[in-house]
Amino acid sequence: MNGFKKFLLRGNVVDLAIAVVIGAAFGAIVAAFVAAFITPLVGVVTGASGDVSDRSFTLAGVEFPYGLFLQALISFLLVATVIYFLVLQPVNRLMERYKTEPEVQSTTKQCPECLSNIPQAATRCAFCTVQQVAGPAPPPPPPPPIQPAAPDQPPTTQAP
Fold it and tell me: Domain for residue 26, yes or no?
């Protein structure tokens, strides 16, 4: 029982519980706002008289209340927009600003033959068994210089 008590009192669990309660309350506020203001406005704009949430159609004797779905969709979009712009973006900017650790350098490299990720220190690819070069590939040798030729002869290259 002591371990369960420690688990519940850890910061992450308590923070998550608070976030769920606040999120549910915020969702209820947004749903009420959409039902009271947005859905009737959508009905006025689309030419319907009043609340769109009452709209439905019947097919083969079954009623489909598409107005309720439209109201729930608008509520979801409002909640997602508020969370993205007022929570997620500011938190990401703060995390980026106060970042204390340098970027982690990769401990792997890509095999030039099979393009698999292998450890930096590998001398042979574990997947295709191609011998790996110790460092970066050396640049290709420069082309041999072109020797000027007499006007009646083609140009020649000098062997290195």
Answer: yes
Shared domain for 43 and 121, answered yes or no, is no
Whole-model pTM? 0.49
For residue range 142-155, list pLDDT tens digits in order: 777 776 666 666 65
For 90-104, write each residue's pLDDT tens digit.
Answer: 888 888 888 777 777
Closest CA to 57 of 72, 47, 70, 44: 70
Best CA proximity match to 51, nearest among 29, 34, 63? 34
Residues 76 and 43 both lie in one domain = yes
pLDDT on residue 11: 61
Pair (117, 43) in one structural domain: no
Is 137 contained in some domain? no
Q: Spell out the SS3 assignment of the chain.
A: CHHHHHHHHCHHHHHHHHHHHHHHHHHHHHHHHHHHHHHHHHHHHCCCCCCHHHCCEEECCEEECHHHHHHHHHHHHHHHHHHHHHHHHHHHHHHHHCCCCCCCCCCEEECCCCCCEEECCCCECCCCCCECCCCCCCCCCCCCCEECCCCCCCCEECCC
